[in-house]
Amino acid sequence: MNTLEIVQIGHPVLRQTARALTREEILSDDIQQLITHMRDTMRTAPGVGLAAPQIGRDIQLAVIEDREEYHRNWPAIELQKRQRKPVAFHVIINPKLRVDKSQEVTFHEGCLSIPGLIGLVPRYLSVDVDYLNEHAEPQHIHATGWYARILQHEINHLQGILCIDHMPTRSISTIENYIKYQHD
Ligand code: ZN
Fold first, then answer.
1. pLDDT of residue 183
2. Annotated catalytic residue: which of 5, 69, 134, 154?
3. What's the CA gap between 100 and 86, in Å, rounded?
4. Which string of b and e fits 11-23 if b means at least 16 CB within 10 Å?
5. pLDDT-based confidence at 2, cuts 50/70/90?
6. pTM of the prediction?
7. Is 176 a catalytic residue?
8. Which residues pair with 58 in a beta bridge?
9. d(Cα 92, Cα 95) in Å, to the nearest integer?
10. How far is CA 104 from CA 87, 124, 142, 167, in A?
11. 31 and 52 in contact (C-beta within 8 Å)?
């Protein structure tokens, strides 16, 4: 297993607009290997998404996976409120995000590049994403609920936007205190 160092908030790469990849680049050994390393890094963290800027690369690529085992410590009612369901591992490259602005939902959210802290983040409930997969093939996702939140979080990373930018500052908490005082 080859894990990469996760870049922390304050590093300029997290504030850059990442560049799109060409088909040739996507199919290159470099990017194919990077995808495997990012998958292993995300699983080790663990996290439900990891964007290339978080490992120091300013390219439009992110990996996503929300495993059932991550849900075991959550009460069913909390999973239901968040509309959180397992999402299989996949790679999104050069994504184009379209949001349905009719409904927003607000929950606490964190980021592997901002360790230990979470805060309230409003996100659109429903999104559509056009992107390329790891074989450089065009794909489409329609997502709602927590999956839509993950997609917005990861695609924001490719635009130099962090979840903390959306947080009312008074909602920011350590994860420890969040568990203790349950704000949601
Ligand atoms: Zn993040």
1. 54
2. 154
3. 22
4. eebbeeebeebee
5. confident
6. 0.97
7. no
8. none
9. 6
10. 21, 4, 16, 14
11. no
